[in-house]
Amino acid sequence: MKKPLFTGACTALVTPFLNGSVNYPMLEQLLKRQMEAGIRAVVICGTTGESATISDREKLEMFRRAKNYVGRDCLIIAGTGSNCTEHTVALSAAAEEAGADALLVVTPYYNKATPSGLLAHYGAVAGAVQIPVIIYNVPSRTGVDIPVEVYRELAGIPNIAGVKEASTDMGKIGRILAQCPNSFSLWSGNDNLAVPIMALGGKGVICVTSNVLPREVQDMADAALDGDLDTAADLHKKLLPLMDALFSQINPIPVKAAMDLIGYDCGPCRLPLTAMDPDALAALKKVLSAL
Length: 291
Fold this sequence. Notes:
The chain is α/β, with parallel strands linked by helices. The protein has one domain (8-228): Alpha-Beta Barrel (TIM Barrel), CATH 3.20.20. It contains 12 helices and 10 strands. It has helices at residues 24-36, 56-70, 85-98, 115-128, 139-142, 148-154, 170-179, 194-200, 214-225, 229-246, 253-261, 278-290, and strands at 8-12, 17-18, 21-22, 41-44, 75-79, 102-106, 133-137, 160-165, 185-188, 204-207. The strands form 2 sheets. It has an 8-stranded parallel beta barrel with strand order 1-4-5-6-7-8-9-10, surrounded by 6 helices. A two-stranded antiparallel sheet has the order 2-3. Helix 2 (56-70) packs parallel to helix 3 (85-98), helix 9 packs antiparallel against helix 10 (229-246) and helix 10 runs antiparallel to helix 12. The protein is globular.
């Protein structure tokens, strides 16, 4: 049986900026911190990495530099999705050439593809590369929610590794896990649902909170996967106030503020995202102080 691409925690890494450009020395600092905490995989240029406002040239340079820095010690998962299949295919192939270990491909947003369109889109991407492809289902952002029957068909494509499921329908998540083969992995795309999803059979979480507390998130995920749900639940409850604070405004506004507060100046978000509201920032500071 095909092994999961990774298990446990994968960090959806923020993109650090300095004077409007990607801050590559800080990117290496962030990667070093993640690896030292035992994180086995990171997503570069996902939602948390502000993929919507980063050029393809910047993305490819980040993929290349990140992989050169981590070597074999960490998986680099490249965010290459868009709402144009031709663009997604081209960027995915270029990311593979740049050294990415796998791809994270969001559902085509705005277009609202039909089930047959989703099958054709992901089939085209998977057919253009040799590396694994992770589907990214985040209906709150894209306006599209992939049906279970589409997952069943996509699971038959050899290099489709599974899905980052960021819906909140636990019934649907249970049906995906029940109806798709074990070779099709499901990772939580919501930090606050990671433990219950792993209890159902999910393989881990692609996480925002682990930017701030990577060791604690990794420990929570490992405990859940080991079947020690009491420990996993205790860690979940400890981290829940931070999870809530990190999603008190649109991601990644709060997590970039949090990184600055703990000593990693990752710069502001690119417009149209702006700075965190003062009241929300004060609440975030209070949570971080308590932790």
